[in-house]
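User: I'm curious what two different proteins look like when written out as structure tokens. Can you demonstrate?

Assistant: Sure. I'll show them one after the other, since each token string lines up with its own sequence. Here's the first protein:
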Amino acid sequence: MVGRWVLSRGGPTGAFTRVGARRQIEQVFIGAVREILDPIDLAELRVSVLHGEGANPPAIGVFCSSAGQLDLGWIEDSDAPIPWRAAAYQALEETLGRVLPVFGYDDLFEEIAMYYWEGETDDEAARQCLINYHGADPDDLDEMSLPCEMNARRPDWMLCENAAPLCDLPDGLRTRIERLRSGHSAVNAVDPEHDAWQFESETLSDYVEGLDECAHLPPLTLVPAEHFARELDDVGRHGMEMGFTDAAGLYALSDADCIDDWFTSLKLGVQFLISAQDLINLDPSIL
């Protein structure tokens, strides 16, 4: 199917061995993909053509080879006003998961709550869970993380209530956030049948072996490791040992023509990621 797409683009014709034809097809397809993905340095993405089990058609998968905390640049490290940093962080937290396999603070808190506190989210109930289910010594509880203590560790720029409204931001920052949200809307507007940036877990398991053993959390996070290293280590241990659910999208190929639709959607996602990079790479001193 990819071969027919290559030929439709005026690819090489003539006599080829099976191996030679496959090599030519791969070179043209991978070259077109790399040209689109090259500007992305926020995360390392790769694309694979996959063969499904049984009657499933071939598919194109987008996967993430990076793991750990995304570099937040000035949002985390600068002395820029907290309302600016919080506005930028909020925009990333609300949008990046549409394209990248990334989790935020709410996901981390939920994981920790289920693991240590049996889903409880207030301190007293969490204390009882630590004692009753984990055998914790009541005298040692002050050394253990509890919901309120964990929430209190969030730096001010992570709190959405500290985010300035767009109208109060300097032009350069406001423009970048608006561009990010516009790119996010463009990705959301794509017909689901032509979307390179979505997948169903059940369908993905038909194409990727061993997925059931992988951690269900994605490999990337927006949670700052400086403040939540222990919690990130706890929830990431399974993924580091068995692999993460690192898919960003899975697109089933019904015919060669739909590959052009996939490329169109891929480009929209990359343009969105470029806008995220521009926001993160901003120098707040020039605002």
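Here's a second, unrelated protein for contrast:
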Amino acid sequence: MAEGKDIDTLKKDLDSLLKKWKKIEKKAMTEPAPVCVYEDIEIVSSVVRDLLTPDVSKVIVDSKSLYKKIHSYVGSVSPEMVRKIEYYSSRTPLFDFYGVEKDFRKSLNKRVWLKSGGFIVIEHTEAMTTIDVNSGKYIGKKDYEENAFKINLQAAQEIARQVRLRDIGGIIVIDFIDMGKKENKDKVFHELLKEFKKDRAKVALAPISDFGLLEMTRQRTRLNLFYTVSEECPMCHGTGRITSKETFMTQIESWLRRFRTESKERRLVLQVHPYMGSYLQKEMKKILKKLQWKNLVLLKLEENSSLRLDEFRFISAKTGEDITDKF
């Protein structure tokens, strides 16, 4: 954790630890036993501690209680950073306003489209992650080399973004569209190198080979996003993956928040696969009630075997219309 940090940052961290230790010693000497002399910080404070660096412009929080906790924690360890903590009070869900929800959904897809009409396909295996660059719908100049170069350049920018967003670690192999000119290969390589300089994790890249392949490694700090928010499918015995139950509930909550903001209707039918229906009725009954109360809606749960395990549909109780894709 300390590698690559400047002296001032390390000194600041040391001073903070020494202050904590003095408090622990004082409490141990003065308080009657048994007593808790130290309790580690909450996960949110831990995340703020690790990620709130000088290059972060602001931290936006949409929960008043969480905002107060973070504000208090930052004020005690880095008072000069307090101005960066902001409370978000708009009715539009925070993740929707900043496009995080949209990016999150995209990060679960294998295929990511480029502005030019080309696309990249991201595949995970036990040994490595492979990324394939395709021309897709792109119709450019008749010059194949120029077309390939343009798509590869866009792909390099998006690949670096997706790797960071999905927190992909380990060995990564990128299959670019074949380019004949060495200067074009070098430009694409340096574009990728430039984009990865924004990455907090350690990254090492090898030049593009004669076969259009680029091999790289990225520091694995945790399980990547794909495995974090998905779980083994009980229907295919682990050969494929679906959205985890926790993520499934989060998606339902996000939908309800958008619906509450934009609609006055208050009675809905929630259709899910029977497997998820059983889970919601048994293990998530209280959470489901809380969501209804929180979003001022009345939900009727229905099982629909034609739906995928990780799919849900919202039906208007008033009109019988499927309104899922409207919000």
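A detail about the second structure: The chain has a mean pLDDT of 89.
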